[in-house]
Amino acid sequence: MHTIACGLEPETAGRVIQAVDILWPGSVHGPVTAFQDALAGASVVSVGRRAKLLLFHLEGAGGAPLVMAAHLKMTGRFFFPEGGPTADSHARVVFRLDNCRELVFHDMRKFGYVRLFTPGQLQEWDFYKNLGPEPLELDAAGFLDRFRNRRGSIKALLLNQSVIAGIGNIYADESLFRAGIRPDAQANQVSEARLKRLYTAVQDVLQEAIAACGSSIRDYRDARGDAGAFQNSFRVYGRKGLSCPVCGRALHGVKVAGRSSCFCPLCQRT
DNA sequence: AGATCTACCTGGTTGC
DNA sequence: TGCAACCAGGTAGATC
């Protein structure tokens, strides 16, 4: 997400959105006509991120600030199609810019969405309001406070956006492996020492992923058509049955918190 | 209230 | 070969 926001900003900042074509109304949350009307003539100020939300900070045609939030879920992406208008059947929303380029919101599985807010409305949005802290802005003490004495599996806590924001299935599995904690360990049974290792592991995994320009699954490409590289560094995610990079034993796959989870039964403990 | 389960979607993969 | 069943994953909404 961090990588995506960084890639989009230079391509869009300062540009005016002349018109918006909505090819699949379900991808626009909130009133569709108001979305189109408010964006026509709006200019892009900057592109940021909070948790797994992309935030396009805009200035409406009348000068009022607006924020377009975009959630990509699993298959959403933003890109500029080569050679004019796209005939891609998975294009959901097209933003026609004043430089004759078209920014496409593409989402095969229709899970993602775009939604328009005033800054005040964004702050009042339940989902936004309830987001936990950004992991890279959290110190060890704050992390421990949020993970100590909690019921449920440690992985469910890592994935819970109101506990800590922005961690998905990939980075949860990778962090737990590095910390030596099984994904199905009950959070309140994990020692203080292991929780500290988990804090460090989360920091390391996220920083390494950002340095590698993110993780590209299957044919994912960013706005410039480039793939990330962190998927080449996965130690457990998606490697069920393959050997543990540390001890060589076959990695196990289990369902935890409704999510497929990969771990090493020897290196990871409760 | 907090934890857990399921629906939402579609394309790729697996199994018969 | 053909086709059905299953899988992936973030969140909302329901249920426990």
Brief overview:
By secondary structure, the chain is α+β, with helices and mostly antiparallel strands.
Describe this structure in words.
This protein is globular. Strand 4 (53-59) and strand 5 (65-71) form a beta hairpin. The strands form three sheets. It has a five-stranded mixed beta sheet. Strands 1-7-8-6 form a four-stranded antiparallel beta sheet, with helices on one face. The mean pLDDT is 90. The protein contains eight helices and eleven strands. It has 270 residues and is of the alpha+beta class. It starts with a helix and ends in a 7-residue tail after the last strand. The protein has helices at residues 2-12, 32-39, 119-124, 126-129, 140-147, 154-159, 169-179, 192-211; strands spanning 17-22, 28-29, 43-50, 53-59, 65-71, 76-79, 91-97, 102-107, 113-117, 252-256, 259-263. Helix content is 27%, strand content 23%. It binds a DNA duplex (16 and 16 nucleotides) through residues 52, 71-75, 90, 107-112, 127, 150-152, 156, 159-161, 168-169, 217-218, 257-260.
Helix content: 25-40%
Q: Structural class given helices, strands, pairing?
A: alpha+beta
Shape: globular
Total number of helices: 8
List the helices and strands and how they pair.
Elements lengths: L1 H11 L4 E6 L5 E2 L2 H8 L3 E8 L2 E7 L5 E7 L4 E4 L11 E7 L4 E6 L5 E5 L1 H6 L1 H4 L10 H8 L6 H6 L9 H11 L12 H20 L40 E5 L2 E5 L7
Parallel strand pairs: 2-9
Antiparallel strand pairs: 1-7, 3-4, 4-5, 5-9, 6-8, 7-8, 10-11
The structure holds a DNA duplex (16 and 16 nucleotides).
